[in-house]
Structures are given as C-alpha cells and as structure tokens.
C-alpha cells in the first residue's frame, strides 16, 4: 500500500512537473508573440504628470491620493470628468482616457481608491462598496466642488459610482450630467467565477480570501519569484485582462499594476464585491445619459452583468465590443475614448434641449475595433515578411557556402 501511495505521489509530481513545463513552453510562445506586437505601440509612455496632486481625507480618516488636470481653455461651466479605477488597479490604468479627455478640453479628476495605488490602506471594516461611494463624494467635494460632472467607473469603480448614486441622490440630480459604466456589475453574484463556471469558480471565490490572507505576510518574498516566472505570470494576466492580441509592453504594465496591490487588500475587498447589490441605485439614473460598455470576451465581469444594468436604464446606450476583455480601456483605448466623448456630447445636447434620457429609446450596438485589427495584421504581415527575408538570406548564404565547399573538393 505504501509503495502504491508512493508511486501515485511520484506520478502526480511528474504530472505536475510536466504540466508546469508545458505551461512554461506555452507562456514562452505567447511572450514571443507579444514581443513582436510591441510594434503596435512603440512610442507609448504610460507616465503622466498631473497639474495638481491632492490628499483628500475620507470619513474614516483614510488619506486618498487625487490628481487633477485642467486644460487652459476650461471654465467651470464645462463638465469635469471623474475617473474611478477598478479592483487591483490604480490611476495609471486611465492613462489613455485622461489624455484624450484633456485634449478635448475637459478637466479630469483621477484618484486611487482606498488601499490601492498611493492612497492609504484601509482597515477591513471599511473595505466596502458603501465606503467607496462615500470616498468618491469626498473626492468630488475637494477636487471639483462646483460645475457639471461626468462620472466614469471601470469594474469596482463602477460599483463605487453606484454607491455614490444611492447615498447622494441630491448630488446626482443637481450636478451629474452623464455616467459611464465600463466592464462592471451592479451585483456581485458570479463575479469570482473567473470564467471557470459556477462549480470551480465558487470554490476559487470561497478559498481566495483565506488563501490571500495566509500569503500576505510572505508577499515581499515574491519579487524574485515573479522575475523568474514572468512569462507565466504575463500569460495569466493576459488571459484574464484581454481578449485580443496585445503587446508585451502593455501586459507587463498591467501585471505591475495588478500585483502592486497587497494580498490583504485583495482578501478584504473580495467579500465586499461578492456581497454587493446596487440594482436599486440605478433608479436615480433613469433620466441621465448613461453609457454601458463591456467586452464580449470579459471573463471577470461577463457581458450578462452589463446587460442587467442596461435593462434597468431604458434610455441607456449599450456598447458591446468584440475581441475585448476586462481591461477594455487599455486594450481598445481609441474606441473607448470615442465612446466617452460621444457620451458627453449627447448629454450636453440633452441639457440644451431639455430632453430626459429616459424618454429616449435604448440603444445596443456591437462594435469591432477594425482599425486596431488592421494594425495587428500589419505588424504580423511585416514580421512574417522579415522572417521570410531572413530565411531567404540564410538559404543564399548556405548555397554560397556549399558551392565553395564543392569547388575546394574539386581542386583537391
């Protein structure tokens, strides 16, 4: 019996080793493909210097990091766009949107949600969606206390927006002209399935917080491990963040953002997200211009969650993007930028004409990012042509070398 158990153990270890090796090979191939796609965004700089940095103190004394960018041409009668990032992300995840909005002449406020980025880490008691809504109110009161507002939330940031709407309906009624929900949900059911289905996903969701809490004291030792397992790590991040080919540069940027989040923070917020239900909050937005955007291949907040939001907002515009995952604002930035600018324009027209968004028909559109697809095909075509030229040159060198060898043999 002992021998059998030992044999099974050895077999399991061998299978695990083989699986790890296979995963490593697959990750290496994926990494090579992403490196070739770096030509998609060769000049991308993810850094941004804000006009103003603020420290906003939340209701429980947690200090929140806030950044404000104001174009020279902006005035207080124009809208301020407030961007709220998602779970395990931070301000830099909005880099493409804040630049586009600034270029269009809008003031932009970005902030690190509590326990993320440069904001203070919260205690577990206040790691809730309700508290995040109160935090957003504090940010608005400090960074943009007057003038019209456009609220944009990605993933957990969308939940934060819903919480604000529920607790501060007066602010929404008086100042909010438009809201955008990007890859988010109004209910936490099924959000921890991670695309594995309810059975496996439920086990991951239940074990996740406990496992992360146990790993938290050892997180500082994972730096060297991350460096050695970078290609596997990138492949995991790529799978759950994107649904189309992206560059290694973008995946590495994403990995660094996500894994900068302490494990104890992940463990604290997972139960809050799972237990969230903000459907009733949406009733306060019935007469507001609302945009709902989701990726068709989003594994973390599947499309059905966006559809459930749209069902409760009769005048909303629902945009489903093909070949897009959870981090759609980084994967298809030009497309998302265009949708946000169109949203603000529609809201401005509504206000001018006195039209309530709830009186307009609901719109649902499926969009393919054709321009980006062309760039991907172009990069791969150029890379294939380069490889073909290299093979032809190598064949020519081999032919010359063989001819030389033949001549030397004949002389001898």
TrEMBL record:
Signal sequence extent: 1-22
The AB hydrolase-1 domain covers which part of the protein? Answer: 79-333
Q: Which UniProt keywords apply?
A: Signal
Pfam families noted in UniProt: Abhydrolase_1 (PF00561)
Kindly give the InterPro entries that the UniProt entry links to this protein. Answer: AB_hydrolase_1, AB_hydrolase_fold, Epox_hydrolase-like
Superkingdom, natural source: Bacteria
The biased composition feature labelled Basic and acidic residues covers 379-393
Q: Where is the composition biased (Basic residues)?
A: 394-412
| GO MF terms held by the record | catalytic activity
The record's annotation in Gene3D superfamilies points to:
alpha/beta hydrolase (3.40.50.1820)
Annotated region (Disordered) at: 378-412
**Calcium as a keyword?**
no
Please report the name of this protein according to its UniProt entry: Lipase
Species this protein is from: Knoellia subterranea KCTC 19937
């Amino acid at each position: 019996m002992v021998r059998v158990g030992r044999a099974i153990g050895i077999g399991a270890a061998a299978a695990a080793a083989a699986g790890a090796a296979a995963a490593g090979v697959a990750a290496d191939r994926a990494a090579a493909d992403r490196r070739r796609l770096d030509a998609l965004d060769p000049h991308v700089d993810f850094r941004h210097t804000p006009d103003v940095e603020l420290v906003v103190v939340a209701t429980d004394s947690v200090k929140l990091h806030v950044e404000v960018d104001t174009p020279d041409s902006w005035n207080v009668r124009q809208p301020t766009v407030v961007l709220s990032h998602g779970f395990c992300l931070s301000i830099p995840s909005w880099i493409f949107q804040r630049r586009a909005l600034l270029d269009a002449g809008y003031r932009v406020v970005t902030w690190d949600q509590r326990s993320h980025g440069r904001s203070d880490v919260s205690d577990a008691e206040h790691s809730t969606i309700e508290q995040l809504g109160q935090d957003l109110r504090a940010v608005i009161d400090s960074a943009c206390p007057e003038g019209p507002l456009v609220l944009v939330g990605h993933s957990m940031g969308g939940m934060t927006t819903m919480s604000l709407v529920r607790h501060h309906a007066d602010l929404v009624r008086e100042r909010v002209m438009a809201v955008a929900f990007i890859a988010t949900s109004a209910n936490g059911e099924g959000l921890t399935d991670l695309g594995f289905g309810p059975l496996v996903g439920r086990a991951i969701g239940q074990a996740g917080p406990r496992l992360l809490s146990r790993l938290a004291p050892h997180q500082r030792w994972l730096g060297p491990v991350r460096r050695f397992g970078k290609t596997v790590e990138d492949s995991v991040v790529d799978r759950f963040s994107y649904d189309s080919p992206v560059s290694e540069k973008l995946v590495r940027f994403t990995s660094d953002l996500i894994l900068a989040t302490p494990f104890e923070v992940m463990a604290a917020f997972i139960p809050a997200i799972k237990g969230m239900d903000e459907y009733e909050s949406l009733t306060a937005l019935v007469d507001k211009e609302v945009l709902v955007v989701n990726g068709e291949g989003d594994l973390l907040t599947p499309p059905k969650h966006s559809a459930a939001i749209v069902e409760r907002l009769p005048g909303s515009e629902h945009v489903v993007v093909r070949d897009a995952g959870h981090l759609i604002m980084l994967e298809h930035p030009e497309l998302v930028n265009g949708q946000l600018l169109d949203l603000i324009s529609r809201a401005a027209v509504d206000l001018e004409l006195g039209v309530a968004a709830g009186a307009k028909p609901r719109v649902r559109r499926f969009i393919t990012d054709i321009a980006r697809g062309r760039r991907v095909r172009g990069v791969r075509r150029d890379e294939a042509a380069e490889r073909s030229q290299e093979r032809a040159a190598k064949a020519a060198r081999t032919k010359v070398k063989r001819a030389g060898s033949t001549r030397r043999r004949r002389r001898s």
